[in-house]
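Reopening this ticket.

The earlier resolution said the output was attached, but the attachment link was broken on my side. Pasting everything inline this time so it's all in one place.
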Amino acid sequence: MLPILALTLASLLVQPAMAVPDPEPMDAEWQDLRGKERRRAWRHAPLDPAYESDFSAYTIGRHRTRLGLMNLDYGLLDNLHVGTAPMLDLLKIYNLHGKVTAIQTQRIDLSFEATGMFWNGNWGEDAEDLSITVWPLMATGSWMISQRFSLHLGYRWDNVDVRGSFDSEDLVRGLTSALGIDLGDELYGALEGKGAFYGGGRLTLGQSRLAVDCRLTRRDSIVFQAWRYNTLSARIDAGAAVDETMDAGAAVRIQQPLEGVLAATSSIAYQMTLPRLRLRVGIPISGEDALPTMWLPQAFELYWLF
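Inline output:
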């Protein structure tokens, strides 16, 4: 994580900030319009290929706020915003995230995003003081192919640290709540069944992401997204802590490819972009049997910019 933070800070110092388009055209005649005429003018205004979106490498801009169903973000710089997910905070899943567009050119942008989530609780009768800390790290590249088409490619690493006394069923239940995917078959197979007790673990999940957006007008877009978990690597420790530096007991190492185990989750959606509002509504086209936390963020989004 430190190398990524160092790279991000360096990019802020050496990369000239790219001007973020004002959310509303400043043409005086356009500003005088009201109601339907104003909305019609916005719809037919010139396209904005680098409009901010949650699947792209772009950020919300300096001193702007984004309030959505899941996230509350604030722009510290033209290419850096930070925020939290208030709904998770209310569930005592404390979290903070930040995103920086480190490389900016006329057609290709690259961003880095880091999130920290922490919570504890008992997912089973035998689980004691079970806590899970998740540190997702993500890199996203956005390529503006033309005024109407953009391609967005990303890769996310979910780094999970589990601490407490738990068995394999508690572990699977906690990870399902934390990550939104069911890894029961993979973990039960690697841990040789259910019921054994463990004292901690570290897991890393790799996920690739793809998004394509087609801009019909400045207001209307069609967005296709696909996410796929690729790999799972883990170390699960069994036994008891001897002191702060050593555990007694066995350790299980897991290295599991997931391409043939977990299907890709994809969706297609209509997205409406207004001066202060973003709305996306869609349907899953694969992976509809996955947990809703996998495909709902793709297919549905609503937030305000001010």
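Reporter confirms the inline version is readable. Residues 1-29, 240-248 have pLDDT under 50 and may be disordered. The chain has seven helices and 15 strands.
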